[in-house]
Amino acid sequence: MNIDFSKQLLDTEGEPAIYTDTQQPIVAKDILRRGLLASFSKSEGDIDKYFDWAMELKDSGVLKLDKADQNKLKQFITGMEITILNKAQLRNLIDSAKEDKD
Question: Which of 5, 12, 37, 92 shows its CA 20 to 30 Å from the CA of 75?
Answer without folding.
Answer: 12
